[in-house]
Design a protein that fits this description.
alpha/beta, Immunoglobulin-like, 4-stranded mixed β-sheet, 8 strands, 4-stranded antiparallel β-sheet
Length: 131
């Protein structure tokens, strides 16, 4: 009886350890990209790094969550009837909030995990993940 109990406990611990290891590896390889589109037009973005490619779209007024590999991507963004190219650093999680297409945005955002993107005058500095 005791042998069966010890065997069952060891088996449960091994299963829990293997699940935790797989979850930890998956977490290290993927990052969360959240895009909020507060404009009246769709936002589309392509992300490329070698053989890795993502194409994401967000409808007007919607928020979408994407999971991508932790890489520095070359990006092309289409928003507000304009297109723009640059880079997106996805080595950590990033939240992008696209503001209204016309007029001045409420705030320019900040160089943190949350960045507000106003296509006509988005920031150009090393502190920003979206360039």
């Amino acid at each position: 009886m005791k042998k069966n109990l010890i065997f069952a406990i060891v088996l449960v611990l091994l299963i829990a350890l293997s699940v935790a290891t797989v979850a930890g590896i998956a977490r290290e390889e993927l990052a969360r990209l959240t895009i909020t589109n507060n404009s009246d037009l769709p936002v589309m973005m392509s992300l490329t790094n070698g053989n890795t490619f993502y194409y994401v779209t967000v409808a007007p007024g919607a928020t979408k969550l994407f999971t991508v590999q932790r890489l520095l991507y070359e990006r092309t963004t289409w928003a507000c009837d304009k297109s723009d190219t640059g880079t997106l650093n996805m080595k950590t999680g990033v939240r992008l909030v696209f503001t209204q297409c016309w007029g001045t945005p409420a705030t320019q955002g900040e160089p943190t995990i949350l960045e507000r993107v106003h296509i006509p005058d988005y920031p150009h500095s090393d502190a920003w993940r979206y360039k």
